[in-house]
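G., the chain you wanted modeled:
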Amino acid sequence: MTRRGAAVSLHRSLAGFVSHEDPANVLSLVAAKARQHGGLGSTDLACALRACRARGKLWPRIPEIHAAAVVRGLGGERMVGNLLIDLYAKKGLVQRARRVFEELSAMDNVSWVAMLSGYAQNGLGMEAFGLYRQMHQSRVVPTPYVLSSVLSACTKAGLLVQGRLIQVQAYKQGFCSETFVGNALIALYLRCGSFMLAERVFFDMPFCDRVTFNTLISGHAQCGHGGRALEIFDEMQLSELMPDCVTIASLLAACASVEDLPKGMQVHSYLLKAGMSSDYIIEGSLLDLYVKCGDTDTALEIFNLGDRTNVVLWNLMLVAYGQISDLAKSFDIFCEMQAAGIRPNQFTYPCILRTCTCSGEIELGEQIHSLSIKTGFESDMYVSGVLIDMYCKYGWLDKARRILEMLEEKDVVSWTSMIAGYVQHDVCKEALSAFKEMQECGIWPDNIGLASAISACAGIKAMRQGLQIHARVYVSGYSADISIWNALVNLYARCGRCKDAYSLFEAVEHKDGITWNGLVSGFAQSGLYEEALKVFVQMGQAGVKFNVFSFVSSISASANLAETKQGKQIHCRVIKTGHTSETEVENALISLYGKCGSIEDAKTQFSEMSDRNEVSWNTIITSCSQHGRGQEALVLFDKMKQECLKPNDVTFIGVLAACSHVGLVEEGLSYFKSMSNDYGIQPRPDHYACVVDILGRAGQLDRARRFVEEMPIAADAMVLRTLLSACKVHKNIEIGELAAKHLLELEPQDSASYVLLSNAYAVAGKWASRDQVRKMMKDRGVRKEPGRSWIEVKNLVHTFFVGDQLHPHAEQIYIFLADLNDRIAKIGYKQEKYYLFHDKEQEQKDPASLVHSEKLAVSFGLMSLPPSVPLRVIKNLRICNDCHNWMKFASEVMRREIVLRDVYRFHHFNNGSCSCGDFW
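Predicted structure as tokens:
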């Protein structure tokens, strides 16, 4: 045989092996031809590349063949280049594919389609669109296949605008009648949520194939439009097209999305008759239908009859039991799966972990976490996202953060779970730091991440950062997202931006309960209590259903305003709406009655609770201590421990305050030491201030000073102010001056510090020093907060100042007060001298101008309220010795209960005595 004849024979054999998909022999013959006949042509190299494409294991040979083509000057040949573009793109080596494309001597439509398809396969929509524009500028006429490829790329990247431009080109070229172009357009519009455009393309298509109907049915099913998906299936049957497995799977998904079990059962019957029930995809879709429709028993039957090697079916059963929070059965399925030798995948662990999270079984979740590490799934983004969420929900933020840091590729879900976890546990600064870090990593936040970041700003009243994120919302295209609007309403309300909060609230087109509650709670938390109650009333008038958050926020607002009447009205509404068993609401009611002076009502509310938590106990303990019932508070503390509830830092504030109010010095110090020794609680500045108060009230000022000096943390203003106040009471100027010096360095603009020091000097008779402090205040522009008292009479709140002459009934009040003073003087009351003024100043002042506001408020209450109604007065400063003594005598003479709430505590005056036992 001649050399030419041998080469022809070899080429024919090569073509035969390629047609029979025998890649090993193809490569052997190519190598033989290279050895025996010298050169290899582009046809030979193309055959070798097709052989590698048929057998994935031969991938390493592709770069060798590419190198051989380049050496022989065939790298720019279209026959070789087009195959290389396709192979490199399918392997994800898009840049290498692009280099081959650029090096082609001449490009044909196959070259453009190969490169465009490569971009589409790798989700590079913008690159595909850019290449298409380059093709258009090169005056290359696109084929329907080119348009279909670039539309697929736009679909994967969600590029709606670019896709519509391609549609215009398709119309110009007359390709819109091509079925596969129409199918690509429908897929694009469905992916981008433009259902009307998708339907319009569908109606304009002259011929629809099975892919058309499958695309429409699947697209609507995935978006929850189950009804429309079923209608399209009916149209498909009318067109005499037989559904395939993809159609049936999409239909089952459509039924599942709208939980239409009867229709789903009809589809189930159809597939049984058509003999499709054993299809791998249909098995999963069928099981998913019964799981989502809550028919766990039927789901289990299908599972038992199905392919037990299909991990998808196992995962769906885990979801089924997770939906009904049946952790025991869910874990049984998981263990059975292990025993059957089925290897879990990246969706298995999240299914069981979510059930652990919902059931509160964090320890079991940890064990599943350990197993995911052993099987190599801990670094999977999907698994890690659920783990981060689980640990965040139970406050294990450090562990969640470690998992996030371990991830090589952090996605938006993992970052968002971490940010939301920080916000949930009020670690708002960390949340904003994580939000910033996420953006620095090049990850754009989604609507949940933005809403969480806005909530973090609200938590720490970071208005400036909140405004920046608000601007980012518009840039990100989430300006219509209701969760973000709700977070923004709450942000502006919590930051006291009343008008802005209302403007945003009014701009929300479809307000839900969260929108209303965000406004109520925001105003309540920013101290705008009256606005909070106003919105709560409007919420009821608008017919919006109240929930736990509505009641907790409105009750808290009433408590802070000491609005007993409105608080009781809300309590009635709680009873009517059936929220009385909600622990959070009951806790708020205890606080309401405690803050409004109705300690007996608070105790009754507490005793009627069926389920008490730490907040319940903390609230009643604090209420009792504030009402001078220190011993009761300590008894409650012991009962709390007997209930196996662990005290927290808030508990000890109430316990230490109780000891302070009843003079239990050593007991208080013992409780303070037990915080760290017995419960591992690190004392905060508030706790140190309580101890200083315990020692100061007992007159042990030297001991209090040593305690402050030996504190492991620097004394803050609260600690120093407490010490200075005790020095004023006990006339210890030396320690008082020392405390005042540090206090004025910390808070040079706080009027209370100057007033305390000034009063301390006045009590000690150091008038020159007192005048010097007052001059210092004036020079520094510090204004003293005037003493005020409030009392509610016939639904109106009346405010009184010291020596008040502006009240409409001032004349009658002073007459009544003079008469009352005469009556109480007869049973032993002696007015104390106004120790803040020396004798000469008192002679120069009108006696009426020295009458304290609480005496005026009580006098007005005694004049105006019937004997059956207790007098409830609020004062913004601490009650003085003389007024305290006066109240006791007044309660005895008038035979009335007087409840006074000052800045420190409650005083219940009755029959000539006070609940504080004269220790305040």
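The radius of gyration is 39 Å.

Shout if anything looks off.
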